[in-house]
């Protein structure tokens, strides 16, 4: 049985509701501020027992070795390693855009539409979130519980957070947009996901947690370098 | 059905209005650390403490120490308004020296005699080449060493670099000594430099989860004979490390079925693989220079008290938790660690010494004395144990930080 038309109608309804609510909310958004517009998706301080960055957004060594085909070879979100069941918070005011929508990050995901045409996607969640499209959420609201990609919690528990725009067709680096003490968010841990791969022929590019390119889904690979390290 | 086009048009209108009305993205874009255009002459900048002279906390001096678990802050709070002395001639310690221009370069490593530092990038003022450069520890004009980059032997005399479907082992002047049939994968050279290892894909082994690294087998090639051996153990993990004996290899990972996670030691001669610590989500293991012990970080443990930095003997015995958090490196004598505490509420990083015999913690460089902030945990200890080199998160340049005379 083909559920696609019904699913599409549901998505469009959710989209309309989310955009209208977001338009109403946008009037409450502070005017141009120096501070990043979004909060953290997890409570508390980083640390080995609470949460820490398992993989940055962008040109990571892990993504280079295990390229994400849809994401131009880059990691198109930030991974917060955290135990399964950790409460996930809305990073900003907005409206629920999708619950378990067709946006990847299995087994469960939530998308929230914000002002400025931005969307936040919370992936690899433990279970289907009890939210409905169009529902208004505020920054810091609990929206879901974290899980892991394989749905078994003993392999790689983490929250995958994306910031999308252009009607979900692109992702951008969450680091500049979230109020997180990123410098200490790795808790001193060094792994392939927290290391950026160097294009040895263009060695100053995409080396920092801030300087990373946007990703257009379906676009050509960006990091298939003739010479790279690591 | 007829209403759908109208609804879609309204939707697009709302989306367009939203897009048109929102503030420009530059409002939330942070400052980027980018190199200045053109070749800027590298300036040697030496930053020293603006607070009390760092006569305490230096190895060899009578220093106040803290018991394990102590939480006293190492220094007075930094004063952001205090000017930072910059000069080119000072013997005050600790002392940070900027070795390259802003945005240049990456992958700093010490030369074996601690006299200089090698790094990768395009460091020349006129010479545009990207490659391996060296600069004296106290600063100076960078000198081009080699266009090659890869895994280096400890004396920096050999480099194993990927070249298409193979890896070449060469001298820095480009003379190739061996070719490794390893698909161009990263090669791992032990301190003995008489053999090389790589992680070969374990074809045919089912992938348990795509969020884990693919299964691999360790392959070893003897450089004098070209003989290749592949011990039977199959692992899932990120990287491997040679023990100093050039015989054993440490694997932080799982078995082929993604079970039994932890620290494994592979004896490359007998082929025996031993799980010395069984626990999921161990991170950042480092073998001591004498090969006797391994320090690592346990994360996401059910027992909250088990999270943190641990040390274990290479045979799995003597495991104990250390009273420190953050990044760490071994000091050359294998008796102590240097560590960068994290998290902390200070604006800059700090450098501490952790003595393994008694757990005493000694501040070496407090926050702001001088200020330093390390990018992506990219720092290494000098072979003489008296300084570190790091890539700065502030300006993207390579700096050395000397804390002992
Ligand atoms: Zn991810």
Automatic annotation (TrEMBL), chain A:
Database matches in SUPFAM superfamilies: Duplicated hybrid motif
Entries under Gene3D superfamilies matching the protein: Glucose Permease (Domain IIA)
Swiss-Prot/TrEMBL keywords: Signal
Residues of the signal peptide: 1-33
CDD domains: M23_peptidase
Pfam family, one: Peptidase_M23
Cross-referenced InterPro entries: Cell_wall_metabolism_enzyme (IPR050570), Dup_hybrid_motif (IPR011055), M23ase_b-sheet_dom (IPR016047), TAT_signal (IPR006311)
UniProt entry tagged with the keyword ATP-binding: no
Location of the M23ase beta-sheet core domain: 75-166
GO molecular function, a single term: metalloendopeptidase activity
UniProt protein name: M23ase beta-sheet core domain-containing protein
Organism: uncultured Thermomicrobiales bacterium
Lineage: Bacteria, Pseudomonadati, Thermomicrobiota, Thermomicrobia, Thermomicrobiales
